[in-house]
Amino acid sequence: MSTEQKSSERKSNERTSSEQASNEQNLKVAVLVGSTRDGRFGPVVADWLLGHLEARGDLTADRIDLVETPLPVTFPSFGGELSPDDAALLAAVSPRLEAADAFVIVTPEYNHSFPAPLKNAIDWHNRQWHGKPVGFVSYGGLSGGLRAVEQLRVVMAELNAATIRNTVSFHGASQCFDAEGKAIDPAADNAAKTMLDQLTWWAQALRDARRARPFAA
Ligand SMILES: Cc1cc2nc3c(=O)[nH]c(=O)nc-3n(C[C@H](O)[C@H](O)[C@H](O)COP(=O)(O)O)c2cc1C
């Protein structure tokens, strides 16, 4: 191997290990797709957000779609055992929430609130939310899902999570995206950047804090 080839191989190895180090440092963000309706619009909104998230170098996304990983709807009695089937369903979701440093909930508005399957997914978990930030992307009819987000803030506060002030909302959502899934109004892209910047600040601060001492639940 020539000196030039050796130098190029060394640089490539250095690049790979520095990329690995930076990926390990990346904050893990679980993106929850809150709608499970047949014919739902939710994936368009979620994929747009994921595009923003993945374009950053500092965040690693995990898309949790409650259609692909449904959760049981009947809770066990207090202290009761889960059936093997229910345990298997939870095993596809709970460790991913546990591993997350931050969350983005993508939610429509249903009857001035958020969809029941999303509440179910939230209620199956507790410590997985503690001491972590939650950002929101909402959509709906006239409301843009804003009332769903305000209700989610109350729920997430009960679970010791920190909700991010700035949100992204789409009013009349189906008219807000082009055929390639891009947002028609660039203000939405700016809003996503602001929300993700704030989420990242909180996620970094809270990850450092959780590493320094366990959350006081
Ligand atoms: C059961 C139901 C209730 C709804 N309630 C509201 C509402 O209160 N406010 C609103 O702005 N839009 C409401 N909508 C419209 C939805 O927010 C909108 O159609 C959205 O795209 C639904 O998300 P999805 O397609 O991902 O299920 C409702 C839709 C459904 C199916």
UniProtKB/TrEMBL annotation:
InterPro entries in the record: Flavoprotein-like_sf, FMN_Rdtase-like_dom, NAD(P)H-dep_reductase
Any GO MF annotation of the entry: FMN binding
Region described as Disordered: 1-24
One GO CC term, this protein: cytosol
Comp. bias regions, Basic and acidic residues: 1-17
SUPFAM superfamilies: Flavoproteins
Domain NADPH-dependent FMN reductase-like stretches: 28-173
Transmembrane feature ranges: none
A UniProt-annotated Pfam family: FMN_red
PANTHER family named among the record's database cross-references: CHROMATE REDUCTASE (PTHR30543), NAD(P)H-DEPENDENT FMN REDUCTASE LOT6 (PTHR30543:SF21)
Name of the protein: NADPH-dependent oxidoreductase
